[in-house]
Amino acid sequence: MIKKITCMLFVFCLVHAYAQNTYYFSSSSGNDSNAGSQASPFQTISKLNSLVLSAGDKILFKRGDTFTGQIVVSYSGSNGSPIIYDSYGTGNLPILTASDGNNGLTDPLSTIKITGKEYLEFHNLQIENERFDSEAGSPDDQAYGIFIQSFKSLPGSGNFEDAVLFNHFRFSNLVFQNIYSLDSSGTAFNNIYSSGIYFFNAFVNDVIIEDCYFTNIERCGVWLRKYVSDAIIRNNTFIDLGGSGTIISNSKRVLYEKNLMRFTGSSSDPRMTARGSGMWVFGSDDVVAQYNTSQHARGGGDSSGMHVDYGNSNILYQYNYSEDSAGGFCETLGANDNIIWRYNISVNDGNPAGQNKLLWVSDYAYNPQKSTNVYIYNNSIYQGTDYKNVIGDSEISLKAASLNFINNIIYLEPSAKLGQAGYLFDVDTPNFAKNVMYGGTINTNFLNKDATRKELDPRLFDPGRRHFSGYKLKTFSPALGTALSFTEPNFPLAGVGIFQGVTSKVTQDIFGNPVDLSTATNIGADNGTGEPNVPTVNSYEAESATIVGGSEITCVNASGGKAVNILGAGKTLTFNNVNVATSGLYLLNVFYANPTLSSLQITVNGGATESVLLPFSDGYCYQSGNPTFFPVIISLNAGSNSIMLENGAIDKIEVESVNDAALSTNSEVFLNSSDAHLEKTILYSDETLKLIMNKETQFKTAQVSIYEITGALIVRKDFNDRNINLPVYDFGSGIKIVVAKIDNHLFVDKIIVR
Questions:
Q1: Are 720 and 626 found together in one domain?
Q2: Does 185 share its domain with 201?
Q3: With 90 as the cut, is the pLDDT of residue 669 above it?
Q4: Among candidate residues 478, 510, 535, the one where a domain is terminated
Q5: Phi, psi at residue 498, to the nearest 5°?
Q6: Which pLDDT tens digit goes with each residue over 295-309?
Q7: At 33, is the pLDDT very low, low, confident or very high (cuts 50, 70, 90)?
Q8: How far apart are CA 30 and CA 40, in angstroms?
Q9: What is the four-CA torsion angle of 30, 36, 39, 45, rounded to 10 degrees?
Q10: More confident residue, 441 or 18
Q11: pTM value?
Q12: Burial category of 190 from C-beta neighbours within 10 Å (exposed 0-12, middle 13-18, buried 19 and up)
């Protein structure tokens, strides 16, 4: 009997130890004396902070509600049973904010505070923290959404990984916005740390930040400031931030891919720091940044599309698109080793409002030191007219111990200049070979560094297009098959861990074409066989469209001397009968003359409205402004389409097809039902969509996208194993399209959500 009782007690304790609870919170209908169930939810953050949580517990916040107060994470999950913070219900994401306004009550430094805890996940939440009132012991010039730190000190070895690290942090489908300190006006730029997600002395390993949206933040979106390893940051959007989208410092092994960064270094709010590259690395080892887009980085400091600060090793930037950054392209500072820039595209980088160094490598470091083994090869660089209709006139500043500049295309419009406004060349061991340097006025000394250069038109597909697809090569390009074959630098961790899909030697170009630099290849970022046709562009004048609430205005420099003013809410301009031959993705070029940064609303075929920030042009119509254009990717149907615009001074629109509107391979093989299938095609909202792989493909990565039947994207997620599943509750009801890109295979099917 004693043995039986002991056994029963053991089983009871074992079950109790692994019991998983779900706690529901609603600020609108909850009460802290409730049971915490969905039917009887808790109400406040104070109640949450009082709960004793266990591994596997879930905290769910009701959508549409706002929760005020600082969440102090006091408990860890365990391996396989993380503690999860998520949302429930329908409607807008629940808002979590530490600040309760300017009312004299303390506003905490962060909305979520994590100190020395692990196995934590945060999904489907909106996080804000606009501080007005001081918190005792906290600096007034800082504010954070999520703040992660530890109680550890750096080991004597100086290697943070010699300490025992905290593991497993997941952040997905989070919105970070409206994060500001009380006042940082008297604080030096480098001492302002306000961020959406901030790791400081964190000592953490295994971090994934994906599908998140960052906007309206004093400085940074994501900052791995100290001591993070094995981090993946992917599929995030960083729009209109005072500083950088992401900063990676004092960290190891980070994969940064498929992120969109626009208007970093913004000054749209006077509290913003107004300086910042889209992304940069400092004092870090083994970082890969690939398939990212950075546009309109601003500020008088670095403010490049992406850059490599000082004290790094083994940094690989490949397949990225950089446009209209104030700093320039390929910014690499001092005391670095093995820095690789390959198969990237740069369009109109560098302008006089910033550093304006189109080509930029320096020795800047705490103790100035030239970098070794800097490789810049097979990139395509275009310089023409920027968004303010100013022709490019950028500097060249190159200072390194060893610099390799091979197989690049530099294309200047006839009146553009490079290396005339400023020129510095201080390289101990230069290696320049087989570059195309064409057009404009290029500094003669720089030209002469490459005795094998080609000063011929590379015949780009659509030079000046503000999208990477314009920089393919046309048939009969002198860049086709004429690149230098050479031994590429080594990225030591290629194929290992989070870099499983990364190769040390390049195997494809930015468009997905195969590459082998040991054989005959193309100069520049495109290794295709050449595009035979010129792009087809259809143009539609604003004054010929349907105007509601707006007015036709005289605009001397506009097409036809006219534009349409629909600035302000409720004023619309609709282009009916926009005809295209085939269904697919198109570039919509909106020509406008807005005097300030503004938000344009775009609705295609009566679907969901997309909000797009437009950089200001060089003036409004009555200020003799010259309309500029901004490209947006849209989906059109074969035949007639309607495009409605709201809030802008519109000259015209142009519509042109893009063969490959996403940075991915274009040689996909369709999988049939014998190769792969969905476990179920009729699902309920509380079920999980599962894709079963029958075919034994050489599986590395998969990207699964769920679309409305209209073509609108609902959700997109990456997988790096064969366990491909997605919760259905965010899909909405009705017919949905499932598209899975599995390496070079493509799977498409329909589902019905009830």
A1: no
A2: yes
A3: no
A4: 535
A5: -65, -15
A6: 999 998 889 999 999
A7: very high
A8: 7
A9: 30
A10: 441
A11: 0.86
A12: exposed
Of 535, 562, 587, the domain-final residue: 535
Least confident of 251-255, 461-465, 698-702: 698-702
| pLDDT tens string 438-460 | 999 999 999 999 999 999 999 99
Q: Are 556 and 518 in contact (CB under 8 A)?
A: no
Residue 744 forms part of a structural domain: yes
Q: What's the token pair of residue 154?
A: 């750096």
User: Does residue 447 form part of some domain?
Assistant: yes
Q: How far apart are CA 50 and CA 41, in angstroms?
A: 15
CA dist 122 and 231 (Å) reads 15
Tally of residues, the chain: 754
Q: Above 50 in pLDDT, residue 257?
A: yes
CATH number at residue 704: 2.60.40.1930
Supply 740's token pair. 């899975």
User: Token pair of 479, please?
Assistant: 């860049």
The answer to whether residues 414 and 506 belong to one domain is yes
Residue 738 lies in a domain: yes
Strand 562-565 versus strand 260-264 pairing type: unpaired
Tokens 């505070």 belong to residue: 113
Paired tokens of 21: 């609870």
Same domain, 32 and 101: yes
Q: Are residues 486 and 554 located together in one domain of the fold?
A: no
From CA 264, how far away is CA 297, in angstroms rounded? 5
| Whether residue 543 sits in one domain with residue 492 | no
pLDDT at 411 over 80: yes
More confident residue, 80 or 569: 80
CA distance 238 to 242: 11
* Rg of the chain on CA atoms, in Å: 27
Answer whether residue 509 is part of any domain. yes
Using alpha carbons, select from 594, 590, 595 the residue that is nearest to residue 541.
590
Q: Which domain holds residue 520?
A: 328-535
User: Where does the pLDDT of residue 671 fall: very low under 50, low under 70, confident under 90, or very high at 90 and above?
Assistant: low
Cα angle for residues 737, 739, 743 (degrees, 5° grid): 175
- Closest among 552, 648, 633, 665 to 600, alpha carbons compared: 648
pLDDT over 90 percentage in the chain: 77
The CA distance from 211 to 224, in Å, is 17
pLDDT the model gives residue 533:
83
Partners of 530 in beta bridges: none
Clarify whether residues 531 and 652 are in a common domain. Answer: no
Sign of CA dihedral 497, 498, 500, 503: negative
CA distance 332 to 736: 45
Q: How many domains does the chain have?
A: 4
